[in-house]
Design brief:
Layout lengths: L2 H19 L6 H10 L3 H37 L3 H22 L27 H7 L10 H13 L7 H6 L4 H28 L7 H6 L1 H19 L2
Helix pairs in contact: 1-8, 1-10, 2-5, 3-6, 3-8, 4-10
């Protein structure tokens, strides 16, 4: 294992985090709330960054747990660990493909005050993002909450929806130790925040209709593909 391998994993991680941030759940709520409350662009982007930091922090914390467990298993399993880790990634990838086929997609947290139920399917084919429907009746948009309550609601909503697609990337880099964990955590922060800021800014300029349905509709398939590729990569790099 060498630095070129870590670079490959870091590039994969950047793509995963950026594409995950492109999903409407990571920027559309901020745009809808900002328009309803007549926030300026600077305030909207600041709130987006603050919520994004919470999102990244929880994902990194979960990633540290994944990495630590991986270190423990790696010490005990030795050369068998890459096969087990790679196999686990392939199984996870298969699970997300199954979710995509059955039409479940990926379910994210619902906005505070929303009248929608958590057992509804997310990612179904619609003419627009399902978040437009969910947010319009939310207290974050209506006058039932002041600005600070709305900001807090956005922060909690995004923080409690960590980037689950990045956790397998942490697992794939276990053999690099804590150095690999720190590199990937930095990649996660840069890619996720950059993606959120770019898509929020574009939406504020009026470009939110750029086929956002595709990200929601095929998120499970995209994650399944990434997990499967990572699984093969972890096994192949061992040789």
């Amino acid at each position: 294992m060498n630095n070129s391998v870590l670079t490959t994993l870091a590039a994969t991680g950047f793509a995963v985090a950026f594409l995950h941030a492109a999903i409407p759940t990571h920027w559309l709520p901020f745009v809808l709330v900002a328009r309803a409350r007549q926030w300026g662009r600077a305030k909207t982007l600041t709130v987006t960054v603050a919520a994004g930091l919470g999102h990244v922090a929880l994902t990194t914390l979960l990633g540290a747990l994944v990495a630590w467990l991986g270190f423990q298993l790696g010490d005990r399993l030795g050369q068998a660990f890459p096969w087990i880790a790679g196999g686990a990634l392939l199984v996870i990838g298969g699970y997300y493909f199954w979710r995509q086929i059955r039409g479940g997609g990926i379910c994210h947290h619902h906005p505070p005050g929303s009248s929608h139920h958590a057992d509804e399917h997310c990612g179904e084919a619609k003419e627009h993002s399902h978040w437009e429907d969910e947010m319009k009746d939310s207290a974050l948009v209506t006058n039932r909450a002041d600005d600070w309550a709305a900001i807090g609601g956005l922060f909690v909503m995004l923080t409690l929806s960590p980037c689950e697609g990045f956790l397998p990337v942490y697992l794939s880099a276990v053999q690099f130790g804590w150095r690999g964990f720190l590199v990937l955590s930095a990649i996660l922060a840069v890619a996720a925040l950059a993606g959120m800021l770019i898509f929020t800014w574009l939406a504020l300029l009026g470009f939110e209709k750029i086929e956002v349905r595709s990200f929601e509709r095929y998120e499970a398939a995209l994650l399944g593909t990434v997990f499967a590729v990572l699984g093969v990569l972890v096994i192949a790099l061992e040789h």
